[in-house]
Fold:
Amino acid sequence: MRALTFDEREESWSSSRGMVLRDVPRPVLDPQRDPKDAERVIAKVKLAGFCGTDRGLWARKALGDMVEGSMKSRGEPVRIFGHECLAEIVEMGPAIAASGKFKIGEMVTAESHLVCGRCHQCLGGQHHVCANEQILGVSVNGCFADYVKLPADALWKIDLDKIRPEIASIQEPFGNAVHACQSTDLRGKRVAIFGTGTIGMFAILVARGMGASRVFGIDPNPAQRELALKLGCDAVFDPRRAPKDTPWAHDPNIVTAIKDQTYGIGADVCLEMAGYPDSVNNAIQCARRGGEIVLFGVRDGNVVIENCQHVIMNGLKLQGIVGRQLWNTWIVGRSLLEDPTNGIQDAIWEHILDQGRGPIVSMKNWDVPAFEEALTKWPKLVLNFDD
Structure:
């Protein structure tokens, strides 16, 4: 079968780039060899989303230690990438077949954080911070392939009469925005979103869908600011990049702009989706007294918090968000996507996926230069393995 891969026998992680389309063996279920296969399925991939993590893997700027470490520990020379998908169940292990939970031919997507169910966090209902999690397409083989093996307890059924397939394939990253927005009550709140990349764009739609009264977007990219307005931002702002000698420094003009939009008070909730040190401090400084800062953006390295006294004396709440709550986030996300009155599906299809004209990439004629050009042009790409 076709798969986008890294092969340590042919490539060096540190000196290579991209993902190589190779012919690899199709996954099989063999409960006698691996008893866990009894509760797994084989699914035929239809569509697979290409996300920011995949961009980092492509450029060798993210998670290389996890990829190589997992390959070594599992004795696997090849890693298949990809963790967002829409797929059709074509084979089931005997235990899951006997349970009746799924049927051959059902359409599913998957939670990419594969959890153990046994650690302290899982037993306490915090599966999204499982101590033993594995990540699909990073620490285990993923879905940038014609077929993928998945644990049945990571599957999420999709009703394609209510959610169009292209959007169903990216329900996992949509869930990141849902989780960030559901960390606090947004009803009637003024929300500032720092970083309007793909998850930030989803957050605009989700915040509106969850009742935010006003939404502001902050991003240095003019194309992303324009798209943020189309998605429903009341106003967008261009932050000044911090000086090189103080890369954490906030932009006072952004603080002034947000306060001008909020009666001099500041934003009730600041969603930091970029991860840059100056963006983090912009979010902290733009929050009102007693406000909340939700931290989702990830960048390696340290962040200096300017004037820690400001955080304490203003009673600010900082909360980190990772992944999706299992399965509450998925339930809320499905409700938002299936509700035709909020316009979320239409906005994703029209503005983020451009009605499928450019961001849907056929795997029939895989072309690396053309794909890299598409990466620079579109905020979100979807790979079509069903062509």
The chain has two domains: 2-157+353-384, 176-320. The longest strand covers residues 40-50.
